[in-house]
Amino acid sequence: MKIGAKRLLTNVTVIEEENEASAFNGTRKLIRPQLPLSERRRDLLQGEDPLSHATAPEPRGVQESSHAEAFYFQKQVQQHTEMTVVLEDGEQLHGVIEWYDKCVVKLRSGRRRVMIYKSGIKYMYKTSEAALGHSVMK
Description:
Layout: H1 2-22, H2 52-55, H3 68-79, E1 82-87, E2 92-100, E3 104-109, E4 112-117, E5 121-126, H4 127-131
Antiparallel strand pairs: 1-2, 1-5, 2-3, 3-4
């Protein structure tokens, strides 16, 4: 009887260990199927990692020579200057610069807020200077 009870206890212990091993422990395995080249959306030159452009080092030839742009934006943000931004397609946006960084300017016009890529800006000027009759473009 003792041998049968011991064997039964061993079998129950093995079953419990198997259940614990197969139980969901919170981790999930990421499965990425390998698609044929014809079905891939991205160009292979970009690499396998979609965020590789964010970690790529910046080119050495493109360095900011001064901080004039940052100083200008900082001054306009602090003084809440009404600005007119002319985009590459000729559209004009009016508002106060609320925030800026290396690539984007955030413009507030009333309750509307717009983020504009700096690469899409043709030029910008103070709205008050245009209202006084000063020539914006010389």
